[in-house]
Write a structure and sequence with these properties.
233 residues; mainly alpha; globular
């Protein structure tokens, strides 16, 4: 990567970081209190705005999302990675649950009261499903496993070791981006992002398998809350 490309990448990362932090403060300190919503809590609008900004940065240099993995993969590749990734997610979730119980950590996530009205509320379930697929599955995967992972790897030389470190770095940032969920939430989402990143590389840097598993995983959580008032995943 040339000096100009490195400088441009660093500037883009700083812009995205300041945008994310600024929007977090805006919603948690002003918008949510005025609206009477629990704070901290999920901020779908923040992810959407950052996604649009990321899209602008890509188009500015005549790139496309295909450059970051949003391309048509082979069917068997998708199915194989989805099955492997879903099993890995279950193992990671079970491991986190065991560890938090052993360390006597609080697994209750901050902002969980936002979902208390979801139980038995089918229209609200449909709304949240639209959000987790459009903003969570597509938005977060395109930002973190797509754009940011590639940019971190580029800064680290684009070598195999660079990609490995980039997967770890994006997982750390993804966990921090979910700080509103408390320590347990950051740990769970960070390890989940690490798993997504690894399988993204296994899939040949294709986003579709991780997008689908992300969406399915969140969907199961929402459906469990709708049916039973809590999610066990």
């Amino acid at each position: 990567m040339s000096i100009n490309s490195t400088r441009r990448t660093i500037n883009e990362l700083i812009l995205l970081a300041f945008t994310w932090v600024g929007l977090t403060w805006l919603f948690f300190a002003i918008v949510y209190p005025i609206a009477g919503l629990p704070s901290p809590a999920p901020v779908p609008a923040r992810t959407l705005i950052v996604l649009l900004l990321t899209w602008y940065l890509i188009r500015r240099h005549e790139g496309t999302w295909g450059d970051f993995g949003l391309t048509r993969p082979g069917v068997w590749l998708v199915l194989g990675v989805i099955v492997g990734l879903f099993i890995a997610k279950l193992l990671v979730a079970q491991g986190i649950e065991t560890m938090t119980a052993w360390l006597s950590l609080d697994s209750q996530q901050s902002g969980a009261t936002l979902f208390t009205s979801l139980e038995g509320n089918f229209p609200l379930l449909l709304l949240w499903l639209a959000i987790v697929w459009g903003i969570g599955a597509f938005g977060e995967e395109m930002i973190f496993r797509g754009f940011l992972l590639h940019r971190f790897a580029g800064l680290l030389g684009g070598t195999t070791l660079g990609w490995i470190f980039a997967v770890v770095i994006q997982a750390l940032f993804f966990g921090l981006a979910h700080a509103w969920q408390g320590f347990y939430g950051m740990l769970a989402t960070g390890l989940g992002a690490l798993t997504y990143g690894i399988f993204y590389l296994i899939a040949g840097k294709n986003l579709w398998p991780v997008i689908l598993v992300h969406g399915i995983w969140d969907t199961l959580g929402l459906v469990l809350i709708y049916l039973h008032g809590e999610a066990v995943l």
